[in-house]
């Protein structure tokens, strides 16, 4: 007999959607030099705590927004866990804002 997996909490379900992740940045402090759109596209949403964001897939938090050159913070794989399915391109739960419908 196989038991169904318990449903993910609301935060997990909502944050599969890139649009929901992007919307979460509407409350992000203005002092941060980050792009909510770029972070949402990179799998992150704003947690509502200080300047902390979290990957919807690997659940890793990031809050270090210092840059050496004073320009907008760049996103990258260093923000995710090394085995993050989203970063590795193996996640199937992400729903982008604009899907490629040409296929």
TrEMBL record:
One GO molecular-function entry: ubiquitin protein ligase activity
Domain of life: Eukaryota
InterPro entries the UniProt entry points to: BIR_rpt, IAP
GO terms (BP aspect): negative regulation of apoptotic process; positive regulation of protein ubiquitination; regulation of cell cycle
Gene Ontology, cellular component aspect: cytoplasm; nucleus
Chain segments annotated as coiled-coil in the UniProt record: none
The protein's name in its UniProt record: Uncharacterized protein
Lineage: Eukaryota, Metazoa, Spiralia, Lophotrochozoa, Mollusca
